[in-house]
Amino acid sequence: MNTRPTRSAARRAPADTPDRFASTAPPYRVEDPEEPIDPRTVRSALELATRAPSVHNSQPWRWRVGRRTIHLHPDLRRWLPVTDTEGRDIGLSCGAALHHLTVALGALGLTTRVHRLPNPTEPDHFAAVELGAGPPADTDLADADLADADLADAIVHRRTDRRRYTDWEVPDAFVTELVARAADHGALLRPVTDPAARRRLVRAIEEAGRTQEATEGYRTETALWSGAGTGTDGVPAGNLLADPVGTGDGTARRFAPGQLDQPADGTDGALLLVLGTTSDDALSWLRAGEAMSAVLLHATRLGLAGCPLSQPLEVPGTRIAVRDEILGGTLVPQLVLRIGWAPSGPPLPATPRRPVEDVVETTAD
To answer: Quick one: which of 38, 49, 29, 45 has its CA closest to 141?
Structure first.
């Protein structure tokens, strides 16, 4: 009998999601500046926004939708206090959802103006997004719509792939593009190409794992959010390694037992990159999450696999080690990314998502 503990929140069957972001309808246009945005358009965008990666697939966000605005708040009921003591992972997760939202709205023909942390008296008001009609007049509409549609399509194809990657190198030109996508969102992405630095980074990941495993409540919290076969949140067994310790090459977090097998021999050919910011506050976490989303979606467009690694930045000692020994004290590390070429075989299944109705409320603004 399965004795896996369950969360107090009731689970529902995941909402249907399209296999591909596509529409035969023309992009939505607002003619009257006072006209409210079509709620069907907003719902479509929010369905894609909720596909964003989040710590343990906890989906710690909630949205308030007005006539021409969308507001982002963290859902603190989904905070993982043992894993994420500072709330950094919530900020990163919500930042990724924010970027997914703006990509989806752009693909649907709307412009966005994002105000991050707009109200100093409400620290849990992460962003206010103003919605407008179409791209600016000097924008090539065809190019803009195609670029946004490509990224929106990447949203439904992106997976967090914890398997070892092949030994094919990521081309330098691709790395340059990924670094540029992070810079577009105010973050710096540093490839860790020196062998000694890579070994030190892997040791920091392993040290963080040992520290967390020895922390009271950590294993229970991780078990609550991983290993299930069905549900609307958490990391299901079908997306987890059967043996993360033996085959994870030092970078895989130990979740509940999974179903992904891979050969015990061989090494991970992934490129490790550290995403950093110049400051370390709530705004930096949010922007880093947006940059993470931009990098992972662009990697997906390039045919690359990706996996965000937050564990070494969740433990103060290893976070300092990454900052000083990998980044030379020049940046605050916010996340490590594994990027590379996925092994052959069928694509990974999509992880579940909560229905839009569970994460959205409508307001009259």
So the answer is: 29
Report pTM: 0.89
Alpha-carbon distance of 246 to 263, in angstroms, equals 10
> Is it the case that residue 224 has pLDDT exceeding 70?
yes
pLDDT digits (tens, 9 = 90+) for 307-331: 999 999 999 999 999 999 999 999 9
The answer for residues whose C-beta is within 8 angstroms of residue 3's C-beta and 6 or more apart is none
Q: Which of 53, 26, 265 is nearest to 159 (CA)?
A: 53
Whole-angstrom distance, CA of residue 308 vs CA of residue 300: 13
> What amino acid is encoded at 283 in this protein?
L
Alpha-carbon gap, residue 128 to 130, rounded angstroms? 7
In this prediction, residue 32 has a pLDDT band, given cuts at 50, 70 and 90, of low
pLDDT digit string, tens, across residues 228-281 = 877 999 999 999 999 998 888 999 999 998 999 987 777 899 999 999 999 999
Structural contact between residues 191 and 175, judged by C-beta atoms closer than 8 angstroms = yes
Distance separating alpha carbons of residues 63 and 269, to the nearest angstrom? 38
Token pair in block for residue 212? 């967390």
For the chain, the straight-line distance linking the first and the last C-alpha, in angstroms and rounded, comes to 50
Task: Please state, in angstroms and rounded to a whole number, the distance separating the CA atoms of residues 56 and 346.
Answer: 23
CA distance 145 to 216: 49
How far is 182 from 364, CA to CA, in rounded Å? 35
Where on the phi/psi map is residue 77: left (φ > 0), alpha (ψ -120 to 50), or beta? alpha
The span from the CA of 304 to the CA of 298, in Å, is 9
Q: Is the Cα dihedral 232, 237, 239, 245 positive or negative?
A: positive
DSSP, res 350? P
Give which of 345, 344, 353 is closest to 47, Cα–Cα.
353
CA distance 268 to 262: 11
The residues near 108 (Cβ < 8 Å, ≥ 6 apart) are 27, 28, 41, 44, 45
Task: Give the ranges where 33-192 is alpha helix by DSSP (H).
Answer: 39-49, 88-107, 141-157, 172-183
